[in-house]
Structure formats: structure tokens, C-alpha cells
Amino acid sequence: MTEFRESSNYRNAELRGCHQYVLPEIKRLTADLKPHSRILDAGCGNGSLTREFARMGHTVTGIDLSRNGIEIARAQCPEGRFEVLAADRHMLEHLNEPPFDLVYSVEVIEHLYDPISFLEGCFLATRPGGMFLCSTPYHGYLKNLAISLTNGWDRHADPLDQGGHIKFFSEKTLTRALRMAGFVKPGFVRSGRTPLLGKSMIAAATRPA
């Protein structure tokens, strides 16, 4: 089982901090999504992002290991389906649904011991020709240098942060992981701060038709 966010304790249904700057890019990248598309949020937390797609008329499903997060999601978005479920290579069979038009994951993969199982599950959950979006904190030469020069690694990657980040991706390593899972045409945008020092990067990839 690929575990993530098991220690999260959601207090309300509001967007979390990183969602504030990731959501506008997610909306831009999915602007051409057909009406009433089927969407899976892999690692939905409290369902705040899933709710945004439901408001646009899409059919939404969210999975997460946080039980109280799922309870909040069900309450705030009753038209969606929300399940306490691990996002691994078996998630689609456990959901017992056909593959989705869009699968997305926001700030989840950096918490996982087995990110390849997660990406393989997202691949299987995406219909042929469908889109997968994956956001994670951005790491690149200039940003890593800036963190080092300001002695910021103890704060940025605090080893005492329960349920904190254990994987640190660059565009190169996330591209390699996406291709290992079967996705093609990965492209990236960054969000938060300036592009050179972006807080997060969002990978957009496709399952071959």
C-alpha cells in the first residue's frame, strides 16, 4: 500500500496554503476539458479542490487516506464520490469505475515511499488520451542554491515534520518517473513566487490513445 497524508488532520473545508497558487494553473491547464468530464482527485484531502471541479459541472471522485478529510469532503461536496483509499497501482480496481478523463494530484507525490506505484495507479486510472496533472514542490539549481545560501534546509526539509516531504523532485526526475509509469508528452509550469524560484511545479502528461 502506498501511504500518504495519513497524519493529516483537516479542521475545515477551506483551500490549503499551496492550493491558493496551484489552483489557478490547474484551471488554466484544464480549460479545454469537455463539459461533464469524469475527474479523479488522487489525494483529495478535504476535497476543496475537488469541489472546484464539481462547481464547474464535472463528475468528481476523490480518494485519500485521511478519514476526517474524506468526511469533510463528503459534507461539502455531496454530489461527489469520496473514499478512504490509498493511491497506488490498485486504486482503479478498488474504485470499480472506468478510467477517468482527468486524473490530478496536488502536493502528494513528495510524501510517498513508492511514487512509481502511485504514478502507475494514476496511469491506469486515466483513460487513453486523457490527461494527468501532478503538482509537487519545485526543486532546481537556483532554488536549491538560494535555500543553501540562506541556510534554509532545516526549515524547508524539517526531519521532525510528521508526515513531511520525503521525496524531492526536479523536472528531470519527475519526467523520468512519469515515463516509467507510461505517460507521454510531459510538460511543466511553475506556480508561486517567480518561475526561477517557483514554490511548486505542475507536470501535465497524457496517457497514449
Please, could you describe this protein's structure?
It is a single chain. The relative contact order is 0.17. Helix content is 34%, strand content 23%. α3 (67-76) links the parallel β2 and β3 (81-84). The protein is an alpha/beta fold. The chain has one domain (17-206): Rossmann fold. It contains 8 helices and 7 strands, in the order αβαβαβαβαβαααββ. The protein has helices at residues 17-29, 48-55, 67-76, 91-95, 115-125, 141-149, 153-156, 171-181, and strands spanning 38-42, 59-64, 81-84, 100-106, 126-137, 184-191, 200-206. The chain has a 7-stranded mixed beta sheet, sandwiched between helices. Mean pLDDT is 90; it is low at 1-7.
CATH-level-2 architecture: 3-Layer(aba) Sandwich
- SS field, number of helical segments: 8
Q: Calculate the terminal CA-CA distance, rounded to whole Å.
A: 28 Å
Q: How would the global form be characterised?
A: globular
Strand order of the largest sheet: 3-2-1-4-5-7-6
Please tell me the total number of domains. Answer: 1
Indicate the CATH class. Alpha Beta
Write the SSE topology:
Elements lengths: L16 H13 L8 E5 L5 H8 L3 E6 L2 H10 L4 E4 L6 H5 L4 E7 L8 H11 E12 L3 H9 L3 H4 L14 H11 L2 E8 L8 E7 L3
Parallel strand pairs: 1-2, 1-4, 2-3, 4-5
Antiparallel strand pairs: 5-7, 6-7
Helix pairs in contact: 5-8
